[in-house]
Amino acid sequence: MRNLLPALTLVFLSALIPALTPAQAQVVEESLPRDPGPLDFIRGDSYEQWILQSLAGDALVGIAPDGRLVPRLATAWKVQKDGALSFTLRADARFPDGSPVSPEDALWTLRELLRDPQASPTKRAILQGSETGVQDGRLWIRSPKPPGRLLLELAQVPVAQKGHADRGSGPFLFRKEPAAWVFTPREHFLKPRVDGIRFRLLPDAHSVLQALQKGWLTLGAPPARLQADPPPTHRLVTQPMHAQLVAWSRAGSGPLLLLERWRRDAFPPRLLGRNARPSRGLWPETLGFEARAIEAQTAEAGAGRPPRAPATLKLLFVAGEESVEKLLLALRERARRDGYDLQLIPLEQALLVARLQKGDFDLACSMVVFEPHPWAVFEYLEPRGPMNFTGWSHPRFAELAARAHQPGDAAWRDLQMIWAQNPAALPLLDFQSVIWVDRRLTVEPGALGLYLSTPGAAGWRWVR
């Protein structure tokens, strides 16, 4: 069967050619590494699902490629005397059936995210502890979070039509075909300029490379080792992202101390390419945090004693991510040099998420894309944070979090200090997005990637 795979891949890729008729030449051809499942603004939570939601939905606010907060469904907002945020919605926003987007639709979305036990953990954590309502035709949200932080996080919460978790008001209309996920432009306030976007399932990086070289994909990420040589039809676009490969430990800081040592020299440069570099600290430097080591390292390794960890370590990761698996194999070889057996256990994404949420793991790792603000690391720290998989807590957290009103506040240093004393997670690699883009297509890179910022794909245009 293994020998048949390249031939089958060629047959599959050749099926793309008839789809590109002259009338469809202005459709952006893209790929997805895995099936995102049905479009669902309430329960969908994978990175692929977020891409679908960004095309078919609108949040109250957006984040521009330069990190600024910009209007989206809400044309204006203000902080009321009681601390609640009040939003005025656009009058020209419509759902696919033509009905206007109302404050009641936004209210239903927010309350459903809090009510549904299977709702997106990321979105539910954003709204945790909040109260919502509608008054005088305006949506209001009262939250224990500072208004500045809440506004930035609400960019992750697209509004669905009341009673219909699969309907959004975004710049593209979604249609699922047997072998593709298709988006066509709508009449929309962002005024999309491309004629459509079509995604096909290509889980193998070499299949993506082949499709790019043949001109069957408009844009895509090739294998790291070949990223310096795009074909003449494409150009290389590099965009910094707040993205890391993160490992969590439920066995205390001992395994993380080992990973902190190994990450320095585990990964050959040919594997990293332009995409990645070994992480240096505990929180993303791209968010403004200084590189800081685990404090326990001084007491243990500095005294000449090895970190406390079993000789055999089991690390869960998402199956099917070829580039990540190769990096983890390099990490395993580095562990062997120190006499440790790092066993890599691949799981389907949904199963890994379930194991993480139940705390059913010793070590686990996954790719994380942070929002472009320092509060994003609170997902590690808050009691119900979507990345607090170990039950981490500290008696000073609530007090310090309440003082972190703005980026750069002194409370951030203290928060990082209490995390460094006993962290539950450690980044292994920092990533940036390196893609090939058809030279005829103009895109605007940003820290959230090509799709998740505003206007995102709605702002792309072809050079006519």
Beta-strand portion reads 25-35%
- What is the H level of CATH, i.e. the homologous superfamily of the largest domain? Dipeptide-binding Protein, Domain 3
- State the separation between the terminal residues, measured CA to CA: 45 Å
**CATH fold name of the largest domain:** Dipeptide-binding Protein, domain 3
Number of strands: 21
Shape: globular
CATH class designation of the largest domain: Alpha Beta
Mean pLDDT across residues: 88
The DSSP helix count reads 15
Low-pLDDT runs of 5+ residues are: 1-24, 298-306
Q: So, CATH architecture of the largest domain?
A: Roll
Q: How many individual domains?
A: 3
Please state the CA-atom Rg, rounded to the nearest Å.
Answer: 23 Å
The biggest beta sheet is recorded as: 7 strands, mixed
The percentage helix is 25-40%
Structural class: alpha+beta
Subcellular location: Cell envelope
Pfam family, one: SBP_bac_5
Keywords: Signal, Transport
Signal peptide: 1-25
